[in-house]
Amino acid sequence: MGIISTLRKLFHREGRYRYEKRSLKRNTSMSTPETIEPTGVSTEGSSRNQSSSNGTNHIFRDGRRYHGDTEVAYILPNDDDEADRVHQQHWLLRYALQGNFSSPVKKQLEEGINVLDSGCGPATWTFEMGETYPRSKIYGIDASCVFPENIMPPNVEFVIGNIAKEIPYEDNFFGFVHQRLLILGLTDTDWTNTLAQLFRVLKPGGYIECNEACIQELLTVGPNMKALQNAFMGMMVARQIPFLAASELEERLKKAGFVDVQVKLSKIPLNHGGKVGKLLWEDYFHVYTNARPALVFANPEWEDPEVYAKLLRDSAEESKQNKGHILWYSVHGRKPFDTTTDE
Ligand SMILES: C[S@@+](CC[C@H](N)C(=O)[O-])C[C@H]1O[C@@H](n2cnc3c(N)ncnc32)[C@H](O)[C@@H]1O
C-alpha cells in the first residue's frame, strides 16, 4: 500500500478522535484536568500545583491559539490546525523511521509496562502505543490540554503538566519514557530539569528515548533557506531555546545519568526523493508559515505574507535542487540498575 493511501486511511481513523475533541469543545461541561486521576500520580503534588497553567488558559494572537503558561517556553500554537499538523507529522515520521521507537523495549511492552509520553501533544503516538500494546499502560503528559479526553484506549490516560518543573508520578514508576519534538519547547535549563525528572520517574533498567530534528544542516542548502534558518535559530536563541538540542542529546542524556546511550541518525529528504520528501516539505512549510509572526524581527519585509510566501517557495526549490535534508536524531539510553555505583 502506498504512503498516501496509508495516510488517508489513518487520517480517516484519526478523524474519529478529532471529532470527539471538537465535540468536547462545544460542550461547556468539558472535563477538566481535575477529573483525571492517573494511577501512580505522586501524592506529593500534581502538575496543576506546579504549573502556572491548567492547560486550558490559552492566549490568542494573530488568529491562532497558544498556551498561556508563562513558565512554558513552547513557541508553536496549540489549536486544531496545529493538532492536524502534528498528527500528520506522526504518520510521516513513523513511515520514514520505520517504527514508533528504536529502544530495545518491544518484549517488555508486549508483557506490560508503564510508559510515559512526555510532551505528548494531540497524542497520536500515545494512542497507537496503547492500541498496539494492550498489556502496557501509556501515560501522556502535556502543558496544553490538546489530547483527546473522553474516547481513548482503556490503557491510556493523560495529565496536564510542565515536564520541566515536576512530572507528577512516583519515583521509579515507568519502564519506558518517550519524548519527541520538544525542540521548540525547552530552554537549556528546561532540558536539564526535564531529563532529571525523567530519570527520577524511570525504573532502574528502564529506557528513555528522545527524538529530535536538527535543522542546522539546512544552512547550506541555499541563500533563501539560509535566511529562513538564521531567522528561526535567532528566534530560538532569543527565547533561550538551544537550536542544537538534537545533536546534544547524547551528551545531555549521559550527563543526566543514563548509560548505554545509543544514537540512531536518519537523513530525511526535504522536498525531493519521493513521497517522504514531499510530506516533510508540507510539514516544514506548515511550521514556517505558522512561525511567520515570530520571524518578522529578522526581516520587516516578511510582514507582507506574499513576500514571505515567495521566500518559502524559493526555499522549497533550493532544497529540491540541492538535495536538502533534515537530520533526525533518535537517542536512547538506560537508567542504571544501581544508581549509586553508576554500574
Ligand atoms: C511538536 S508537539 C509534539 C507532540 C508529540 N510529542 C509528537 O511527537 O507527536 C510538542 C508538544 O510539547 C508540548 N510541550 C512543550 N513544552 C512543554 C513543557 N514544558 N511541558 C509539557 N509539554 C510541553 C507542547 O504543548 C506540544 O503539545
Automatic annotation (TrEMBL):
UniProt GO molecular function: methyltransferase activity
SUPFAM superfamilies found in the cross-reference section: S-adenosyl-L-methionine-dependent methyltransferases
Domain of life: Eukaryota
Chain intervals for the UniProt region annotation (Disordered): 22-62
Coiled-coil intervals: none
Annotated Polar residues bias: 26-57
UniProt cross-references to InterPro entries, sorted A to Z: SAM-dependent_MTases_sf
Name of the molecule in the record: S-adenosyl-L-methionine-dependent methyltransferase
